[in-house]
Amino acid sequence: MHVFDTPGEARLRVRNPAGLVTIEVVETGQTTIELDALRDDDATREAIERATVEQNGNEIVVEIGTGGKGFGVGPAWISFGRTPQVGIRIRCPENSELDLATASADLTVTGRLGEVQVKSASGDASVDHVAGLRFHSASGDLRASLVDGAARVQTVSGDVRLGSARGAVSATLVSGDFAIEDAQADVEAKTVSGDQRVDAVREGRIKLQSVSGDVRLGVRPGTRLRIDATSTSGDISSEFDVKDRPSDEPTGAEATLQIKTVSGDVEIVRAAPVTA
To answer: Is 272 exposed, middle or buried (0-12, 13-18, 19+ CB in 10 A)?
Structure first.
């Protein structure tokens, strides 16, 4: 086990070709790192032996199989003959930042991190609570329960599901479904061969474009709507019409909906009211 003093927030820079990255966020002034062999072979053992685990100020660097010579999905990993399978377990202070790059390692985070950036080829990511999020993957899934700030997501052959998104969301998916439970700011999403679902919006600019996929959008009570929805080879249905009037709530919330589909249906429905 490696133990580093990191008062305040740590900056985690993690590079792992394959395996697992598990992060537990707690109230602490230290960051601990443990490396586990997930497969009993020479490639994995050698990767751990050559691993870089070091501290530079409040930055903690964990690099698997590179021997401190950088990171990539090329010769540094291929030289082992087989891709190493390493588990990285991290325990760090709340609001720490994460920069993760991997080929196929999965990420699981419990607790609140600060800004999170993930680049992967096929690894999945599941995070509890982050200040901001950038996720880029070829074929990995993303699950995030709560994002306080902006979220930028791009994936091919991967699904994305966000719980509560308090900041602006920008998403581009191919062959994957996109979903948000509660969008509290602007949302812009483009999908090809994937459905889109936003369970509830309150205000902001919502721009959804889909090719070969359906779109379903829920709107909170009391929201003033401006709707521009078109579909080619698809049906459009709405629980709102020109006679609908906003509620008497003095919120002034307004949402602009711009929805366009090709070979996909559009459904605009009333979302459930916010409960205490």
So the answer is: exposed
Cβ neighbours of residue 209 under 8 Å, at least 6 residues apart? 189, 190, 191, 259, 260, 261
Count, residues in the chain: 276
pTM above 0.85?
Answer: yes
pLDDT digits (tens, 9 = 90+) for 65-110: 744 444 444 334 444 457 899 999 999 999 999 999 999 999 999 9
Indicate the domain borders of the chain.
1-121, 149-276
* C-alpha–C-alpha distance, residues 16 and 87, integer Å: 9
Largest separation between any pair of C-alpha atoms in the chain = 71
**Residue in the block written with tokens 């959804």:** 208
Closest CA to 255 of 266, 270, 265, 243: 270
Which CA distances in Å does 205 have to 68, 148, 189?
Answer: 45, 18, 11
Cα separation, 109 vs 130, whole angstroms: 9
Query: What is the sign, positive or negative, of the torsion defined by CA atoms of 257, 261, 266, 272?
Result: negative
- Give yes or no for a contact between 142 and 135, defined as CB atoms under 8 angstroms apart: yes
